[in-house]
Specification:
Layout lengths: L1 H19 L12 H9 L2 E9 L4 E2 L4 E6 L2 E6 L5 E7 L2 E8 L5 E9 L4 E3 L2 E3 L7 E4 L15 E2 H5 L5 H8 L3 E3 L6 E3 L8 E4 L2 E3 L10 E7 L14 E6 L6
Parallel strand pairs: 1-8, 1-9, 7-10, 14-17
Antiparallel strand pairs: 1-2, 1-5, 3-4, 3-6, 6-7, 11-16, 12-13, 14-15, 16-17
């Protein structure tokens, strides 16, 4: 009797499927290529706090945005005035901050570095007579507490030496022998040095024109775990994009 009941249920299921047709197709897995590219190459961020100059208090819910490659990347400050713009390619951006009945604040040339956060505090004034206040080019801080200071495009382009020599003379603990393309970190062998160009591991010497490089970040100690197993140093090279100044 049990087998007859199971057979009856099976026949009913097949008959229902033939009448109603096949069921919905399983969902197709999608892959966000743009996000994975940013994560692979190491995007940067702009963060800060918006302050009311009169009350000298945080200004909540201000609008903050930049133009990145023809698209607007925007956010809104939280209740404490803090904001963060994420997934920005390394380069320079004009930062816009606005609020109702306040002058729009524009800071030109804010530099974003790979895998780093650029801190930009903003002070807004309730002055509707001057609708837009434009500041000159943002001044990059001399000291980067807790951060790796990358070698910028202008330093690379106008350097009298090659890229390999520039890395050696700019960082302590990095040795370069004249006439050689090898770099030694903290006495390690040259094959222990890992070189990455736009997130792709490079085998061999750095053979890139200086005008094509946006920035170079060098880790001679305290290597981040995301770069994997490495007993020497890490050289992270980011090339220029079409939208870099």
């Amino acid at each position: 009797m049990k087998y007859v009941t199971l057979f009856t249920i099976l026949i009913a299921h097949v008959t229902t499927s033939l009448i109603s047709g096949p069921g919905p197709e399983p969902p197709i897995a999608t892959f966000d290529h743009s996000k994975s590219f940013h994560q692979m190459t190491g995007a940067g961020e702009i963060s800060g706090q918006v302050i009311d100059t009169l009350a000298n208090e945080p200004l909540p819910f201000a609008n903050v945005w930049v133009m990145a490659g023809g698209r607007m990347v925007s956010t809104m400050a939280n209740e404490n005035g803090f904001y963060t713009l994420k997934l920005l390619d390394p380069g320079k951006y004009d930062l816009h901050v606005s609020f109702v009945n306040y002058s729009e604040f524009v800071i030109l040339g804010v530099v974003v570095n790979v895998n780093d956060v650029t801190w930009v505090p903003v002070k807004l004034s309730p002055n509707v007579s001057d609708p837009i206040v434009i500041l000159p080019d943002w001044e990059e801080p001399v000291i980067f507490p807790g951060h790796i200071r990358p070698i910028q495009a202008t330093e690379i382009e106008y350097s009298p030496v090659g890229v390999t020599e520039l890395i050696a003379v700019s960082h302590a603990g990095v040795y370069h022998e004249d006439g050689s393309d090898e770099l030694h970190f903290q006495g390690s062998r040259s094959d222990a040095t890992q070189i990455q160009v736009d997130g792709i591991r490079l085998q061999g010497p750095i053979d890139l024109p200086k005008t094509a490089i946006q920035e170079i970040s060098v880790y001679s100690g305290g290597v981040p775990a995301k770069y994997g197993d490495c007993t020497g140093g890490i050289i992270v090279i980011t090339t220029k994009s079409f939208f870099n100044n």
